[in-house]
Amino acid sequence: MSTGGASGGASAGASSGAGAGAIHRLVVFGDAVGSGSWSMDAKRRMRAAMYEAFGEAFAAIGVEPGTVHQEDRGDGILGALRPEVPPSFMVGRWIDTMYESLREHNAGRRERLRMRVGMNAGLVLEDGHGLVGRAVDLACRLCDSPTAKQVMTAAPDADLLVVVSDWLYGNVVMEGGRYVEPGHYRQARVRSKETDETAWFHIPRRPAPPMPPFDETDGGDGSGDPETGGGPTRGDGPPPTETPLTPTKGNRYHAGRDLLVIKDNTIHGGITGIRNGEGA
To answer: 81, 16 in Cβ contact below 8 A?
Structure first.
């Protein structure tokens, strides 16, 4: 795609609004797992296989070289398709071909190319330097999210994880179609930086990915918020109940929000209030 049109869009945007020249496009961002520990030669082989897999996947849906915008991200690739490419092709045959290409490459190899892929759709602007837009930001953050990394850690034999935005799942994946497996996706909340979104996770050829039992926090460490109240999520579950403990001779115990011990007429422990009545 020529950069002349992108530059013209940028100029128009400067004069008639920040969004001028932006068009609705499907954005895909792929990132290799664990490549930071590889040698230079291993990285070279990884990058060659990564570009080959992307090329095969695009060719499988009829997208010819030069008709898709691609940016090199070192151990990843950022791409945006032209609006006329049906997004159902991307969540169907594209994913299936990507999976098969990675599986074939990794067969018998000790250093396997495993990839996380984030997908989203929305307004995207080419400004002559690259892609700009919230749709781009979200695709990248879905791919790099702590939950995505946790899923790949929990599935060490998986070659590909796909994470799609809630909009893409509801409007495209849910419609189904050839190679599309809407029932094999699982939902999770993604919170990172300015992002607070619902996302859908999918490992091809599996009924469900191994999802971590928490929502992500703004800290981005994947540890999740601390659970309270005894339920599966923050604030769920019944409040703590007051359960009497078995007293020993001369001692009385009261267990609740505070622990009060009366021993030989001496009070031990913190007191937040005194209640009249038997045993108080």
So the answer is: no
Give the span between the Cα atoms of 145 and 68, in whole angstroms. Answer: 25
CA distance 210 to 267: 50
124: left (phi over 0), alpha (psi -120 to 50) or beta: beta
CA 264/CA 258 separation, integer angstroms: 20
CA angle 269, 274, 276 (to 5 degrees): 135
The predicted structure's pLDDT at residue 19: 58
pLDDT digits 0-9 by tens, 58-108: 999 999 888 899 999 888 999 999 999 999 999 999 999 999 999 999 998
| Comparison of pLDDT for 261 and 110, the residue scoring more | 110
Contact status, residue 145 vs residue 224, Cβ threshold 8 Å: no
Question: Does the reported pTM lie above 0.85?
Answer: no
- Is residue 57 within 8 Å of 101, Cβ to Cβ? yes
Distance CA 39, CA 42 (A): 5
Alpha helices in the chain (DSSP H): 3-16, 40-60, 87-89, 95-106, 134-144, 146-154, 166-171
